[in-house]
Amino acid sequence: MVEEENIAAAKKGFEASFEEGKLYDRQTQDTEHLERIIEALHIQTNDTILDLGTGTGYVSLEIAKRYKNANVIGLDIVEKALQSNRNKAEKQNLNNIKFVSYNGIDFPFEDNFFDLIVTRYALHHFPKIEHTFKELVRVIKTGGKLVIADPTPNEDDAPRFVDAYMRMKPDGHIKYYTKDEFENFGENVGFLLSNALQTEITFPRLKDTPYAYDSIMSEYDNNIISGYRVYETQDGKYIYITQKVWNLTFTKV
């Protein structure tokens, strides 16, 4: 199945990314953005919180550290990263967090299990996004908040240069979604959008596929590309891109 192939590619790609260590951290870590996400969650005592696509545990570990009475679960498909996260939690004496692996499709939780769900820089990898939203609304309690942070294409990027750019790395990237698309996904299953904030992320990647990069850069309109402020470092080792990010808060109604 295509979905299984995408999930396998994502798993393999992220195993490689996590092994890059500092480069991956430079791509994804942002203290100011992390603060915005935690603030949007409005965490209460004894909340049960899901971090979907937890990766290196950047969000979930911080929540567990700050809110010792909360119950935090980080869910992901990459077992190597999850085991590393378990080791981090043990070293930090965090007893209120656990990391769970799954098949990338169906969540291994009961209905109405979570008070809050957060997912950061992950949903563009999910091969069955409508099904994912059905799972999200299934496992969260009525009145619970879902906080999504994910990059979005620029408004003038109808040809989707940014998706082609991201697919240079074989990590299962599917597509970035607009605010309207996310809002429709949510409304179709019972989520109401209650807040929307746009931020930016600028991140590097290794220029390890120069032929593909040169091909993509020549294929798309320069006006579209310039909107993402793409540039190479002088040594030609890294490429930087700047993307807008939607930070969306939904409530299950």
Q: Topology as H/E string?
A: HHHEHEHEEHEHHEHHEE
Secondary structural class: alpha/beta
Radius of gyration: 18 Å
Largest sheet: 8 strands, mixed
Reported CATH architecture: 3-Layer(aba) Sandwich
Annotated CATH topology: Rossmann fold
Task: Summarize, please.
By secondary structure, the chain is of the alpha/beta class.
Note down, in words, how this protein is organized.
The structure is a single chain. Strands 1, 2, 3, 4, 5, 6, 7 and 8 form an 8-stranded mixed β-sheet that branches. The radius of gyration is 18 Å and the shape is globular. The chain contains 10 helices and 8 strands. With 253 residues, it is of the alpha/beta class. It has a single domain, classed as 3-Layer(aba) Sandwich (Rossmann fold).
List strands and helices in order, with pairings.
Elements: H1 2-20, H2 22-28, H3 31-41, E1 48-52, H4 58-66, E2 71-76, H5 79-91, E3 97-101, E4 114-120, H6 129-139, E5 140-152, H7 161-166, H8 179-189, E6 191-206, H9 210-219, H10 222-226, E7 231-232, E8 238-252
Parallel strand pairs: 1-2, 1-4, 2-3, 4-5
Antiparallel strand pairs: 5-8, 6-8, 7-8
